[in-house]
Design brief:
The protein is α+β, with helices and mostly antiparallel strands and 475 residues long. Helices cover 55% and strands 12% of the residues. It has helices at 2-8, 15-27, 39-52, 57-65, 68-71, 76-98, 107-120, 124-139, 146-166, 170-184, 186-221, 234-244, 264-277, 319-327, 344-362, 366-375, 400-407, 409-413, 458-470, and strands at 226-229, 255-261, 286-287, 300-305, 311-318, 335-336, 339-340, 381-385, 391-395, 415-420, 423-425, 437-441. Strands 1-2-5-4-3 form a five-stranded mixed beta sheet. A three-stranded antiparallel beta sheet has the order 11-10-12. A hairpin with a 2-residue loop joins strand 6 (335-336) and strand 7. The structure holds manganese (II) ion.
Length: 475
């Protein structure tokens, strides 16, 4: 374990890791998991997941020790003496989260969960350890009795998977969801797995043909690259089927490949090469390298026509971007020569997360909190509050008029101005998450023609347009 840590942090003295290993192993010595295994196997697995994320030394140690305070006679004071304040605080954070069990039926518990989440989220590493803990618990869930299994799977799907998604930890999120899906709907899971498997093999052939042609072209260019297949998780297929009320064969995405290379320049070079070899589908190209997503995701996306006329979505990214796409915030959390990497992007993301958690704190009921955890999955949204504390989710880039129409059509129609955080703003002000927006209205006031270029949301646009059309102002 120490060797594994030194692979990515070679300049650190990792002897504390060995100490934590032995300490935890002996503290849990007499305990066993439901599977019959030594309890410590679980602690080690959690630490290994954290190592996989290349997390810093205190976090990996806290992973080893995460159940010591809760499940053994060792006290926080003792731990502080052995391992210092930082590691102990991480363990205490995880312990607090652990003591709260969540079920959707119990609003009081949801409230507790929220309070605790907000308190512990001051240090995001606590949540990352908790997610690694949950992953191992989900992987070994079949050893528990039915009722507990259902509760834990449900909680995972409602709270932990969305949290992982929010932190950009897609690999973890997908695995949590698939495991929860399997335990909550075993029959559907098994059926879908069979169906996907059966259909994939024929699609696989088309795709491997494309990959072979593509591989030869890239090979000739001499650009460094690695071509990966892209697969969709069972749960994401299942939720899409539920959403669109369609059977599996009707909801297939386009075929997809992912190409990894070394530098940003080579991403664009490869993109040029691909577009010159395969016809791109108009409008399909998105550049998330120049403009990353809010959860740090970066890639170039394009859809091209393959040799057999099939559409293939190609994603291009550097190896580093790939790590971020898979591990999210955790990929950025590591020691570089003994210090936290200074990563402006990461700071931004963390601030945003803290702010988000603060808004959640302002939401009136636990139900709202849960609702927003769920609806908030869509990235590139901003959350704007009415003076009464009601929250509206709008696409990023929305203006006061979008907000006005989101609140009520009549308010939108009669809008004459807006205040944001108690200051007058112009109608082309770009709303930011957390803004409190008050719409000023005047009776008899009507929409103006230039509003159409100010609004971002479909809802506002269609209301304004239909009014203007009715009055013969626009065609
Ligand atoms: Mn645990």
């Amino acid at each position: 374990m120490k060797a594994r840590f030194l692979e990515y942090s070679p300049h650190l003295d990792a002897s504390i890791l060995e100490k934590a290993f032995e300490f935890s192993e002996s503290a849990h010595a007499s305990q066993a998991r439901a599977s019959g295994e030594d309890y410590f196997v679980h602690c080690e697995a959690v630490a290994r997941t954290l190592l996989e994320f290349k997390l810093d030394l205190p976090t990996v140690c806290a992973g080893l020790l995460h159940d010591v305070i809760e499940d053994t006679p060792v006290t926080a004071a003792q731990m502080k003496k052995e391992f210092g304040v930082e590691i102990t605080q991480l363990v205490e954070g995880v312990t607090k989260l652990d003591t709260l069990k969540f079920t959707s039926r119990d609003e009081a518990q949801a409230a507790n969960w929220r309070r605790m989440l907000l308190a512990t989220a001051q240090d995001i590493r606590v949540i990352i350890i908790k997610l690694a803990d949950r992953l191992n618990n989900m992987r070994t869930l079949n050893f528990l009795e039915e009722v507990r299994r259902q509760r834990i799977a449900h909680e995972t799907l409602t709270l932990y998977a969305p949290l992982a998604q929010r932190l950009g930890m897609f690999q973890l999120k997908s695995e949590l969801e698939d495991l929860a899906f399997k335990h909550l709907h075993p029959q559907e899971h098994a059926e879908l797995e069979r169906e996907v498997h059966a259909l994939t093999s024929s699609r696989e052939k088309t795709l491997s043909n494309f990959k072979a042609v593509l591989g030869r072209k890239i090979e000739a260019s001499g650009l460094p690259h690695r071509i990966l297949a892209r697969s969709k998780s069972l749960y994401s297929i299942y939720s899409k089927m539920q959403r669109q009320k369609k059977p599996y064969p009707e909801i297939q995405d386009s075929l997809g490949v992912r190409i990894l290379t070394d530098t940003v320049a080579n991403c664009y070079a490869l993109l040029g090469l691909i577009h010159s070899e395969f016809k791109p589908v108009a409008g399909s190209f998105t550049d998330y390298i120049s403009i990353p997503k809010i959860n740090l995701y970066q890639s170039l996306h394009t859809t091209v026509v393959g040799p057999g006329g099939e559409l293939v979505e190609v994603q291009l990214r550097t190896e580093e971007m790939h790590r971020t796409a898979e591990y999210g915030i955790a990929a950025h959390w590591r020691y570089k020569s003994g210090e936290h990497a200074t990563d402006a992007h990461l700071e931004e993301k963390l601030n945003w997360l803290r702010q988000w958690l603060e808004w959640l704190q302002d939401l009136k009921s636990p139900r709202e909190f849960l609702e927003s955890l769920k609806t908030d999955l869509e990235l590139h949204q901003v959350f704007i509050f009415t003076p009464m504390g009601e929250v509206k989710a709008l696409p990023a880039g929305s203006m006061p008029l979008d907000f006005a129409f989101a609140v009520h059509t009549d308010i939108g129609m009669a809008c004459v101005g807006a205040k944001v955080n108690n200051k007058m703003v112009s109608l082309d002000y770009e709303l930011k998450s957390g803004d409190i927006c008050e719409i000023l209205t005047r009776k008899g006031s009507v929409p103006k023609r230039d509003w159409l270029r100010l609004v971002k949301t479909a809802r506002a646009r269609s209301k304004i347009r239909s009014y203007l059309r009715e009055k013969g102002i626009v065609a």
